[in-house]
Each structure stands twice: as structure tokens, then as C-alpha cells.
Amino acid sequence: MAKVDISTPLKKYFGFDSFKGNQEAVIQNMLAGNDTFVLMPTGGGKSLCYQLPSLIMEGTAIVISPLIALMKNQVDAMRNFSEDDGIAHFINSSLSKQAIEQVREDILSGKTKLLYVAPESLTKEENIEFLRNIKISFYAVDEAHCISEWGHDFRPEYRRIRPIIDEIGKAPLIALTATATPKVQHDIQKNLGMQGAAVFKSSFNRANLFYEVRSKTNNVDKDIIRYIKNNLGKSGIIYCLSRKKVEELAETLKVNGISALPYHAGIDGATRSENQDKFLMEEVDVIVATIAFGMGIDKPDVRFVIHYDIPKSLEGYYQETGRSGRDGGEGHCLSFYANKDLQKLEKFMQGKPIAEQEIGKQLLLETAAYAESSVCRRKLLLHYFGEQYTEENCGNCDNCRNPKKQIEGKEYLLAILETVVLLKEKFKAEHIVDILRGKETSDIKSHEHDNLELFASFPDEDERVLHAVIRQAMLAGLLDKDIENYGLLKITPEGRKYLNNPKSFMITKDNEFDEEDEDNHTRNASTGAADEVLFSMLKDLRKKLSKKLEVPPFVIFQDPSLEAMATNYPVTMEELQNIPGVGAGKAKRYGEDFIKLIKNHVDENEIIRPEDLRVRSVANKSKLKVSIIQTIDRKIALDDIAESKGLDISELLDEIEAIVYSGTKINIDYFLQQIMDEDHIQDIYDYFNEAETDRISDALAELGENEFTEEEVRMVRIKFLSEMAN
Fold it and tell me: How far is Cα 567 from Cα 528, in angstroms, rounded to an integer?
């Protein structure tokens, strides 16, 4: 079929002189009546790929889209290009019967070129019946990754699209997504019955975006406030996983002078729309949101996207970060990572079907690998989406700007490749690493892999180094991961060549992230203790005091408190009490020596103190703390307190720990005695009495993870700190 002139309608309807990327080829393919698969990153101009042909072709195009907010935006945008509002409509649960009648009238009269429907609306018998009787130009499935269980936003109702299309009547089909791995793409095409579709893939590389991952510490709110205050007036989105955190963080930002609003599915529709419009109209700089926000939000000048919690998958991460810098200008993608967040996400999966849990775990492992790796983040992301990035240093991510020293990985790589071959490519990376480290797991014993010659080749090596070698071997094309089989490692032809002709293989060790190790935070992030000299002096003073008072250093002040002191320079008791983790009791007991040291340091070095960096707390937070103290005084069971406050037990323990670390005495003996043996309480208590650190992970490793739960150890730590420090 001859090419159609589409430049004229492009100029007429949209005012553009030229197409972007693959847009023209996609539209020509559709006008020829062919099925089309479009993989185009956020900001690449996906919508135009179906909007323009809908205006040119005879009939009405049906666009299947998952979000009501997205539909409304798209319809408003289309109406701006036309004199008649009837040109575009949507049908979803938000419309009254009368409004639906008006939509049908416009369609039957031939006015409507684009009709947006939610998949749920498409399944309704009366809608199927109506659509059977109209001329359909084509079907467009937007956000098509929702079809796949391997995608980041799986929706079961998307699986029913093909049978319903068959029921309504045949027409060409276009599927569009901004994020899909080769596995997800295959899944989409298979499910929609469009294996023969022409595939148009744009590069996933967004060269203008700067990717950065920081360690998530107790001071993450302050890090975010400092970042935003250094970028005042710029538009930004902050993503949190829970609605509760969205509300809390939006409040905290507000009381610290930042114009911010919350957005999540629990807020009533009118307020949600109002908050979204205020952000689009630049009446507010920052939106704090769950992932419900942003799909289809076409704001070109979002300058930063912050992930308070690392997302559940790299597809989700890529799509959300892709909302920054859509105009090609600056876009900072900053994520805060703590491994315990991933453990929490894994817990949430319990109760789901086993296959779904396995898929979820694989996606989480990929996210952890991305966060922890010290390789170019752009290279890792593009590799995940099946694209090769050949530059050694992109110059626009934290790992490339602060490259780590490389070490020789040849010996590790040979052992890994040989083990994969020996095990006939039937095991995951974790199993290979366990063999090489000589771990006698039940899995290894049952397969008799402890008899292999390579068993315990590297008994003293950190597992993270071996995992880093595996990931970097995948980037080099020597290994592959069979995603469909839950991540089994396969050796590639290049890998076999390497085995026959080994050569130097330089690797970089992974970044170390520990949410409770503030030293590490200082190394990994550009923020941390602003004054590292003072931070070091404060740690020395704490050590001296801990020996003198015969208590572990963390009993006096935690690292995050020292880091805050080395940033804000408190020189009075009142200022010291504004430091996170320092209440009146602690300030009185230990504060004098610290204030004296800070004052001398400030005077000697003529330091101007940034008092304006003090993070103000939200009043409601202190209300919650007072309420928790009162209910504990009345000896109410902790699980009952958590339920009454709308918290899970882990969140309640976070609140109680903050109270105790600030210097308030709390007695939870009544609850501990109900749920634990006296001997067990004593074992954990004795451990903390001797410990160098109050890290839960260290305590569990020492005490035995099979003996105690994380919650039990945390509760006894609360008892210990309350009695020893307060």
C-alpha cells in the first residue's frame, strides 16, 4: 500500500512540523491496516501514534486504558485540537447514565474519532452490544504491560481484552507500552494474539536523566528536605509505597516551608484532581504520591523524581523516573534504598499464589541488583530491557561520576561458568554462589553438590562479590538469565568461548548499603555528615564516654544523631533537643560534653551554622507518640495498640524506638513476658549488653535467625535501651 501523506494532518491538528523517532513508521503501518506493537519510553510521544491515525481513518478508534485520570487528560488534550468536544470521549464508572447516552449519540452521528474505555467497562454486555454496531477504525491497548504478570502493574482484567475484541468485531490492533522486557513483550503479543505484529522499539536511553541511589537512613526526610531546598522552585514528584507515608511526608515538607501536596487512591476524587491540577499549573512544586500518580501526566518540566521507597520492579522504576525531564532538560532520579524495604515487600506477597510470589521475588532481586551494583546504572537499565549500551562511562549516574576501583575477577568468573556448565544450566545464581562459598544448605545436600570439586572454592569470599561477578558477566554477554524459568543461569556461546580462552575480567565490587550504618551513608552519598571531621570527633567522644560509663556506644547516641550534630552544630541544650533521636532526658544525661566539643569546633573553625536546616516535625507525630506512651502505661498489648493506630507491628516498633532513642523511658515488660520465655529475653538482653552495635541484622546473625524473630529482638532492644540509656 502506498504511503499516505501524514505531515499535513500532523501540522493541522497538532501543530508539529516533524515526527519524533518511530512515530511516522508506526502510523504508516497502522494506516496500512497492520497490527502494531510500540515500545516507546515515557516522553517519546506514544499517544500521537494512535491519536493522529484516529483522525485520518474512517470510524471510531477504541483506546483501552487503565486509569480514569489518564483518560480525562487525554480526552481534554484531544478536544483542544478540535472545535467540537464530541471528537473524543471516555466511558467509565465515573459517568452518569445521561452522560453515557450523550457519548453514544456523538459516536453514532460520526463525530467521535476516539473513544477511551477502561477494560472493566469494555466487558459490560451493553457496551459490547453497542460497539458491535459501529464502525471501528482500530483498537489501541495503552499501558499494555498491564497484561503481563511479569510487568510492574499486572491487571487480570487486561487478560480478557482479546476475547472481547473478537466478540465486538475484527479491526487492526496497536499495543503500546513505555516499559517492557523481552519477556513482557512476548507475553503481551501472545495474549493479544498479535505475534505477527510489526514491532517498533525506541531506545530506552534517556541521556538527560541522572540516576542516583542513596542509602536510606533514619535521616531520609532531612536528606529530601535538604535536596529540595537546594532546588527551590523546581517541579518534582516523590513516590512512596504506602498512603500513610505519603500523608506524613507531605505534611513534613509543608511545615518545613516546601509547597507540597499528597496524592493517593484513598483521597477523594475531587481533592485528588485538584491536587493534580495545582501541580500541573505550578501552584505547587512537589507532589508526594503513590504510584497511582503520573500515568499519562504530561508535565514536561518535572526536574526531579525521588523514590522514598525503592519500587517493586525495574519496570516500575523506569516508568516513574521517566516522568522527569520529558522536555529533554535536567532530570534527577534519586532513590533511597534499604534492603529491609525489599524484605517488607516480600512479606506483603505472602498469601498470593506461589507462581505470583516467585515472579515477585525475581523482580525484587533485579531491583536490589540495580540498587547495589556499582556498574553504570544506564548500562544496567538498558540491559534489563534487552538493549546494549556500549559506552564504558555514561557520565550521568552516581556510579560513573564516582567510579569504584576495579579488581581482577577472572578466577571467580571461571569457577562460576564451570559450575553453571557442570549443573547443566538448571540452577539460579544464589545456588551457584552457595556452592562456591561452601554453604551446606539443604538444597545443596539433597542434590549432593557438596561433593563437587568446585564446592567451597571461595569459602571466605563475600557473597556480594560473587553476585557482582555474575551480573557483570551477564552485561558482558557471557551468562544469561532464563527469566521464564525464574532466573536459571545459562552460559552463552561467548561464555563457552571464554572458558576455552580465558582472559582478564575486571569487575567492580557492589556498593554497600546498610540503612543503620551512617558511616556507610556518608561514603555512598553526597550528603551525610556535612562536617566529617566533627563527625569523627563526636564518635571518639562517644567511645570515650561508653568506656567510662560501661555501656555500648549506641546507648549514648546513635550514628544518625551524631551525623545531624555534625550538620547542624547545636551549641545549646535546646538546640541539641531538636536533633533527631535526642530528647530532653538524653540531652540532660549526655549532652554537656557534646555541646562543649561542638562549640569549640565552631569557634576554632569560624563556622557559620546552618540553623535553617533544622527539620521541623509535624505536630500530629508528637500526638501519636504521646498516645502510644499512654496506652503502654495502661499495659495494652502492642498488637492491639498497632491495630487501633492503623499501623502494622513493625511500624509501631519504629515509633516506640524513636521514643526510646530520644531518651524517654518505656516499660513493655508486661507484653514481653506474655509472648516470650524469660530465658530468651535474657539471651537477647545479654547480647546487647556486650554488642558493639545495635544493628538487628547483626543480632539475628549472632543469636540465630531460627531462634528469634526480628520483632522479638527489636522489643528486647527497646527494653535494653530504656533501662540502660534512659
Answer: 8
Kindly provide the residue ranges of all beta strands, DSSP E only, lying in 295-330, ordered along the sequence.
Answer: 302-307
CA–CA gap between residue 719 and residue 721 (Å, rounded) = 6
Break the chain into its structural domains and give their ranges: 7-201, 209-374, 406-507, 529-613, 619-725
pLDDT digits (tens, 9 = 90+) for 664-687: 888 999 999 888 888 889 999 988
Q: What are the backbone angles phi and psi of residue 222, rounded to the nearest 5°?
A: -70, -40
Tell me the CB-side half-sphere exposure of residue 25, using CA atoms within 13 A. 12
For residue 484, the tally of other CB atoms under 10 A from its CB is 11
Evaluate whether 209-374 and 406-507 have a shared fold.
no
Q: Which fold has domain 7-201?
A: Rossmann fold (3.40.50)
- Give the pLDDT band of residue 519 (cuts 50, 70, 90): very low
Return the amino acid letter for 47.
S
**Is 714 within 8 Å of 653 (Cβ atoms)?**
yes
Task: Return the SS3 of 148.
Answer: coil
CA-atom Rg of the chain in angstroms: 29
What's the chain's length in residues? 726
Distance CA 310, CA 296 (A): 21
Grid cell of 165 as nine digits: 475484541
CA-to-CA distance for 629 and 305, rounded, in angstroms?
36
- Residue holding cell 502510644? 628
Q: 3-state SS of the chain: helix, strand, coil percent to 5?
A: 50, 10, 35
Does the domain at 406-507 match CATH 1.10.10.10? Answer given as: yes
Average pLDDT, the chain: 86
Q: Which three cell numbers stand for residue 196?
A: 505477527
Compute the C-alpha angle 51/55/59, nearest 5°: 110
Sign of CA dihedral 264, 287, 292, 386: negative
Residue 159 amino acid letter: R
User: pLDDT band at 497, cuts 50/70/90?
Assistant: very high
C-alpha cell at 277: 491540577
Which is higher by pLDDT, 13 or 286?
A: 286
**CATH number of the domain located at residue range(s) 529-613 in this protein:** 1.10.150.80
Q: b/e string for 472-483 if b means 16 or more Cβ within 10 A?
A: bbbbeebbbbeb
| DSSP codes of every residue in 157-201 | GGGGHHHHHHHH----EEEEES---HHHHHHHHHHTT-TTSEEEE
How many percent of the chain have pLDDT more than 90?
A: 40
Name residue 59's amino acid. G
Give the CA angle between residues 98, 100, 103 to the nearest 5°: 115
Nearest to 173 by CA among 154, 157, 188, 184: 188
Separation between Cα atoms, residue 62 and residue 77, nearest integer Å = 16
The answer to whether the CB of 384 falls within 8 A of the CB of 487 is: no
Q: How far apart are CA 489 and CA 481, in angstroms?
A: 5
Q: Is pLDDT larger for residue 529 or for residue 376?
A: 376
SS3 of 479, please? strand
**209-374: which CATH architecture?**
3-Layer(aba) Sandwich (3.40)
Tens-place pLDDT, residues 568-622: 888 998 888 888 778 777 888 889 999 999 999 988 887 777 554 455 556 555 6
Nearest CA among 178, 179, 181 for reference residue 482: 181
Contact 422, 525 (CB under 8 A): no
Architecture of domain 619-725: Orthogonal Bundle (1.10)
Pairing state between β 198-201 and 114-117: unpaired
Q: Are strands 114-117 and 136-141 parallel, antiparallel or unpaired?
A: unpaired
Helix or strand holding residue 511 (H, E): none
> Could you give the 3-state DSSP secondary structure of residue 115?
strand
